[in-house]
Amino acid sequence: MFSQSLRYWLLLLIMRILLSSSTPTAGKVPAIIVFGDSTVDTGNNNYIPTVAKGNFPPYGRDFDGGVATGRFSNGRLVTDFLSEAFGLPSSVPAYLDTSYTIDQLATGVSFASGGTGLDDLTAKIPSVIPLNQQLEYFAEYKEKLKLAKGESLANEIIAEALYIFSIGTNDFIVNYLVLPLRPAHYTAPEYVTYLVGLADEAVRHAYDLGARKMELTGLAPFGCIPSARTLNHDEPGECNEEYNQLAMRFNAELKEAVRKLNDDLASAQVVYAETYSVVAAIVANPSDYGFENVAQGCCGTGLIETSVLCGMDQALTCQDANKYVFFDSVHPSEATYRILADEILNNALRIFL
Description:
It is a single chain. By secondary structure, the protein is an alpha/beta fold. Helix content is about 40%, strand content about 10%. The strands form 2 sheets. A 5-stranded parallel beta sheet has the order 2-1-3-4-5, with helices on both faces.
């Protein structure tokens, strides 16, 4: 009788051990820390002197409370959805927003700035925060975290946090193609390599500051954004395939950089997040994803308006942004960001769940 009871309790103990080992650890990622451009700027540009802002209607009209937070969309961004998926708050605060305490920033923070790029020159054009300054803010944030949480817990948060880099499109659109500032110094392939080198440097800098779990987001087919279609003189209204080729070239070199970073950086996990094929599929068959309009943004005429231009004539803004792939002529709608977040979570970030 005793032996049967003992066997029962041993079996129960073994089952508990097996179950606990197969269940994902809660809080495996204690924070989402973000660097980048307007695709992940949750309001930092509100606090700097720049025209590149999204803190007025119709931006934010589908955000909680209908508030224009500075996000360049009608609602939440990819990083907001990712934060929620990891069991963290449903939106990632902007670092420069002083209404947030360091305790609130301990579970997620965005240093991103709309209009910036990997190339410092890109940030100078709209007077926004360059990537190297974002990394300096991160170093500052670390010290604040140590004061608030103690060095041991702060170091644990920094080591286990997920770091997201979403940046690069403005370098091409603003700096190379529309305002041709860099072509005098670089051919297009040379500029791609230069930018990927800067991305590599940024990741290594973050690593030196304690980052270990890092995701680099590839570029979407930016030749298909509404403003690129509008400015496509050869085929008005169509995707600019020359632009898309640059995005694909950048992505190929970025993937190789990610491979090398994993080889070079001890204990680091660096992943590449694919977005090009996802957006390309949406553009090719929008109705499959519930969209009705892929060629125009929801705000204004949908052809060229972004940032301040988006808020000039709200009467023209569409009624249902969920039917539009893009909210303005550059930035995706919340519905598109949600699809991208799901894809990134189920593929690139699966190892961190």
